[in-house]
Amino acid sequence: MDIINQAMLFLLNSIHSLVGNYGLSIVLLTLAIRIVTWPLNSSQTRSMKKMQELQPKLKAIQAKYKDKPQEMQAAMMKFYSENSFNPLGGCLPMLIQLPIFIGLYGALSSPEFLVNTVHEKFLFLNNLSHTLQGHAGESLDGKFNVLKDDQFAAGKTVTLTLVNGNVNEQVVSDSNKAITITPRPILPGTPVTMVLDLKAIGLSDDYKSLIDAAELLVINNKSRELESVKFTNNNGALTQTVETVQGQSTWNLDVLYLIIIYGILTLAYQQVMTGKTQAKDNKTKDDPAAAAQASAMKFMPLMFVVMLFFFPIPSGAMIYLVVTTALMFIQTVWVNYSEDKKTEKKGAMVQPGSKVVDIKAE
How far is 201 from 13, CA to CA, in rounded Å? Predict the structure, then answer.
């Protein structure tokens, strides 16, 4: 997955070199990905739409053979075959696209991207590295705004200055274990000592006497504040003392507005995916299991939106979620409209009085 993250970072930086703004770069890259994956998304939407249309008949089969599981399975397979429907057809496109979207999200949340966007504005967003609620100070000012239980991680690479004067770049093996902080708990307003773990950056203890200094980005995992820290060799240990300031928890209203927009788009997308079928299926009210499933489908998007209030997601990553959801909504509306037109056209082609056994949706 790290390869995909790096590829997405490269694309974002390449687009930024042309348009000069990372917020716009995120929008354009997300749009490009959705265009490339348009056929897969359309196939997934058509498959889900057809599944919804077949759902009442599937429920009838399940009710008829509820005490005969083998006969139920055979009847359902026959039903799928007669209707030219693959129940896994909607899953394959999602599985193919999932690594791309996870890789892009990982790139947008990485220290390498955040360090480029600490002063970046886009539309009504004041800073693309801000989260909804945080206590971050000014990034890259040499001191951390902290709370006593903050956790820190290293960036993806570290610059090593050897005792012979050579400078090497080293990929960090385990970002979350690379930085050790003392004292614990942190006393905000007093300096902390950071120690760089050699094993966590992929080196053995044999390098203790070979490294003179090391410099890398250190990120506060809770506030997403970034600082560039230069560690020096102190009797074989790479250490640095860093100033801290008492963090004051604040709400960033610009990120809140973005989350609200995302929530509205998510509800709208869920409505176009399920609204029409639920309106047609009056039996749902009399089926407790179906009613529970419909309720879960209704509240699941809201639950995900609520989760955004508790997880520190940078506004740059939120732009990706908003644009993706908006494009998914537009594509679903278009595919549903196209499929409805095809159905109307087929119905118009059936002459009055003609004998029709079955009409299968493509």
Answer: 25
| Tens digit of each residue's pLDDT (9 = 90 or more) over 136-172 | 778 888 899 998 888 898 888 899 999 888 999 988 8
pLDDT in tens, 28-68: 988 988 887 777 666 666 666 666 666 667 677 667 666 66
Cβ contact 319:258 at 8 Å = yes
In sequence order, the β-bridge partners of residue 242 are 192
Chain position carrying tokens 């020096």: 232
Give the span between the Cα atoms of 290 and 281, in whole angstroms. Answer: 10
Give the span between the Cα atoms of 254 and 21, in whole angstroms.
18
CB atoms within 10 A of CB 136: 23
Read off the DSSP letter of residue 45.
H
Residue 114 has pLDDT above 70, yes or no: yes
Q: Model pTM?
A: 0.67
Beta strand pairing status for 237-246 and 143-146? parallel
Whether pLDDT at 10 is above 50: yes
Which residues are paired to 153 by β-bridges?
A: 219
In whole angstroms, give the CA distance from residue 218 to residue 200.
14
Q: How far apart are CA 28 and CA 47, in angstroms?
A: 28
Of 205, 140, 216, 147, nearest to 175 by C-alpha is: 216
